[in-house]
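User: Structure please.
Assistant: Input sequence and predicted structure:
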Amino acid sequence: MSTENLIYHDGDVELRGELYRPSGSGNGKAILVVHEADGIGGNVRRRCAMLADLGYVAAAADIHGHGRVLAGDEMMAAVGAFRSNPLLFRKRVRSGLDALCKAAAVDAGRVAAIGYCFGGMAVLELARSGAPLAAVASFHGLLTTALPAQRGEVSARVLACTGAKDPLVPIEDITTFQHEMDAAEVDWQLAVYGRALHSFTNSAVADLNDPRMAYDPVADRQSWLALLAFLDDAFPAGVNAGRYLKRHLRP
C-alpha cells in the first residue's frame, strides 16, 4: 500500500484528502471514506488502509477544508452549517467523489462511498443527491435530512449500520429513514446492533469521555462484514467476506 496527498477544490475552498493505493494492480474499484465530525483521523485512515489491503483505491475526503481537524464549538458550528444546508453538504462530498474517480481512473459503476458519524450522514446525502456511484454505506451516521430522497433519483444501493442504543439516532429517526427509502424506491439495507451506542466502530472514542459513545468490537466486526457482503453484491466478483474474516477480524 502507498499513500499520497489528494488535493482538490470545491469552488474556492481547497480540500486536502489522502489517497491510499493498493499494492500491485488492485481490483479496479475505488471507495471514498468520509471522516467523523472533527476531520480526517485515525479511524478513517485505518479504514482506508484496510480497503487498500483488499485491492481498492481508497480516499479519505476532507469536508472542512485545508485538511483541518476541528474541536469544540468550531467543530459543532461546522457540522451545524452543513446539516442546515444539505445542498452545500452534497456539493462538498461530491467534490471528493469526483477527485477520487479522477485519481483512480474509475467510472461510476466501480466506486462506492462510506462514512462514519458525520461522514455517515455525508454519504447518505451524497446518495440522496443522485450522485453516480454503485453503493453508499453509513456507519452510526444521522439518518434524517431536510431534503429527503425522491423517487427515481437515487442510483446507489444504500446500507445504514446503526446502534439501537445510540441517543443521537433514536428509533423515530430509524423509522423515518425506512419510510424515506421505501418511498424513494431505493435498494436499501439497515443493520441495527442492539447493544451499540454512537461511534461503535471507533476504538479511540473513549478519549472523548462522552457517555453517548462507546466502541463495540462485536458491532464493529459485524458491520464491517456487512459492508463487505454489501460490496460483493454492488461490485460483482468483489471481496469474499468469509476469507476476509479469517485474515483480519478474528475475535
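The two ends are 25 Å apart (CA to CA).
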